[in-house]
Amino acid sequence: MATMITNDCINCGACEPECPNNAISQGETIFVIDPMLCTECVGFHDYEACAAVCPVDCCVTDPNNIETEEALIARARALHPDTRFDDNFESRFRKGQGQPSAARAKADAPAKAASAANNPATEVTSGTTQQASTGASSAYAEPEVYFVPLPDIDSWDIPVRCFKCNQTHVEPVRNFMIGNVIFCPHCNKSMVVRDNLNFHVRTLLKDSYDRWQNEQNEFQMKRERELAEFTEARVKEAEAFEAHQQRELQKIRQQLDTIGETYDAPGKPIKKGSRFGWG
Asked: Rounded to an integer, what distance in angstroms lies between the CA atom of residue 101 and that of residue 98?
């Protein structure tokens, strides 16, 4: 299971009904994902459904538990023995690269053949456009971004050097509360946490976490803005090229019409000159 729900979960429950494997349930404090049921939606979607609907983006990749597509589709087949997963199953690993199944292609063949027979020029044009479009989508497929999840703010540890024995020991950050007494495990000397130490620790963590979230939001917004601008430019280019091809198609049609109208066929009556003119 490479998907986990972080402590940022607000218990909205939006993710639970979206899971095709019923892997998400309410835990003690937040929703949790059962690693034995999660398939990252491989076989059902080319995206992770829980992450798509999460309003706070807390369904993230677990960097300590990465699984391959082969392992995930094998689990999906084991969990859904009555469901058929062909070789073109949907998967986030091949997002934007899925191909129609053989059954779908076979069903569409008669319609395409009829269209080609009725209007060959249109069929050639649409086929060329479709091929170009498919090539562009695979060449410029937007890569997914896997943001590194932040640990819970109270999960940090801080090394402390005892002023008495000069030895270092590690204390959890939650112990650095104003007035709390910390004992050295080496010499048992006590140390009282004053407000300046608590302030430094809490300010560092809060500022770091705020900056982390702001940078992540700005990065995502920048990518979305640039992608929208790029897509808009590509649409304009495609429309301009399509208009060019339509003009060229019309030019070919006109040239064929001209050839047919001006062809000097054998037996065509010859216009004779006037009686007093040169014949």
From this structure: 9
Q: Are 147 and 216 in contact (CB under 8 A)?
A: yes
- Pair 61, 146: CB distance under 8 Å: yes
Interval 147-169: pLDDT, tens: 888 888 888 999 999 989 999 99
End-to-end CA separation in angstroms for the chain: 95
For 176, the domain range is: 153-261
Do 157 and 105 have their domain in common? Answer: no
Phi then psi dihedrals of residue 73, to 5 deg: -70, -30
Residues 23, 97, single domain; the answer is yes
pTM of the predicted protein model: 0.39
Is the sign of the CA dihedral 64, 66, 71, 76 positive or negative?
positive
90-133 tens-digit pLDDT: 888 876 544 433 333 333 444 444 444 445 444 444 444 444 44
